[in-house]
Design goal:
The chain is mostly helical. The protein folds into two domains: 213 residues, no CATH class; 34 residues. Helices cover 66% and strands 0% of the residues. The chain is built from eleven helices and no strands. Helix 5 packs antiparallel against helix 7. The protein is globular. The two termini are 34 Å apart.
């Protein structure tokens, strides 16, 4: 048994809106969390156990990250002195200065950036080295697409983190997600539905901003991407549900978008044949219908 990182000839459309993505992700979270019971089962090879564990961790880790942010904010608030005391009760000739370690903070910041952006950088480097992209337009499209995708990912990640936290906590509470059919075609959600879905995201962003500024503007700046992403969640959800602008579509296009694969062309031809047959046989006796093969 082995894992196939890029399986060709198989295509599944992504959910058309962020709300639909959350509905599908809730089902996937429940399925992956259920796999935790199978990791210790007898007869599985190590790679299968790793695969099951990675699926569950993809939902557990965002939950841990969200809780760690809350704990970090609380610890930062608790560590803030209400009044600086340079001389304690013990007798001393020298003041006790507050201890700051900017080098350690910078190291943590750079390490965080490396963990988050290194996979994207490696993917971009691999794409730039591909012979099919060795043109000025190919380089510009790749670099521009990565920058746009990175910006959207940074803004949408806090929303997805909260959605996955909510899903994991609901699963641990025993709430079932059900299995409704997934919508495959885009339809812009109503404003009232977006407000109901993202209202608590926006409220969480506002409370987080208030808590951070209450500590210091440095903390608010550090948490800026999370705060902005949550505050703009409703607007981002509405905008990403709109039909894609052609220029942005070209920038974010994949090779399969620019040159349709044979299996997709065959699917379109078959769908067209079925539609033609159904229109031709509309009103004809049932026994006279033929099925295209």
């Amino acid at each position: 048994m082995h894992m196939v990182p890029s399986l060709r000839g198989s295509y599944e459309a992504s959910p058309p809106t962020l709300v639909d993505h959350a509905i599908r992700d809730r089902r996937w979270a429940q399925g992956n969390m259920q796999h935790l019971r199978l990791i210790a089962a007898k007869g599985l090879c190590p790679l299968s156990r790793l695969h099951l564990g990675m699926g569950a961790l993809s939902y557990i880790v965002p939950t841990i990250l969200g809780l760690s942010l809350l704990v970090g904010l609380w610890l930062t608030y608790a560590a803030q002195p209400h009044r600086l005391e340079y001389f304690h009760d013990s007798r001393t000739l020298f003041p006790v200065w507050p201890i700051y370690d900017p080098e350690l903070a910078l190291t943590l910041f750079l390490a965080t950036l490396g963990v988050v952006f290194l996979p994207k950088a490696l993917g971009l480097a691999a794409a730039l080295l591909d012979r099919g992209n060795r043109t000025v337009s190919g380089y510009a499209r790749l670099i521009g697409g990565v920058l746009v995708e990175t910006l959207l990912s940074v803004l949408l990640s806090p929303v997805q983190m909260l959605m996955q936290m909510k899903a994991v906590l609901a699963i641990m509470a025993g709430r079932d997600s059900g299995w409704a059919a997934q919508r495959r075609h885009g339809r812009r959600p109503a404003l009232a539905a977006l407000v109901r879905f993202h209202g608590w995201h926006v409220a969480t962003g506002a409370l987080l901003a208030l808590a951070c500024f209450n500590i210091s503007w440095h903390v608010a700046l550090w948490m800026g991407p999370v705060i902005v992403g949550l505050a703009l969640s409703l607007l981002l959800s509405w905008w990403t549900a709109l039909p894609l602008d052609p220029r942005l579509g070209r920038l974010l296009s994949t090779p399969e978008d620019r040159e349709q694969p044979a299996i997709v062309r065959a699917r379109d031809d078959r769908v067209g044949a079925w539609r033609t047959l159904l229109r031709a046989e509309d009103g004809a006796p049932a026994g006279a219908r033929a099925v295209p093969m």
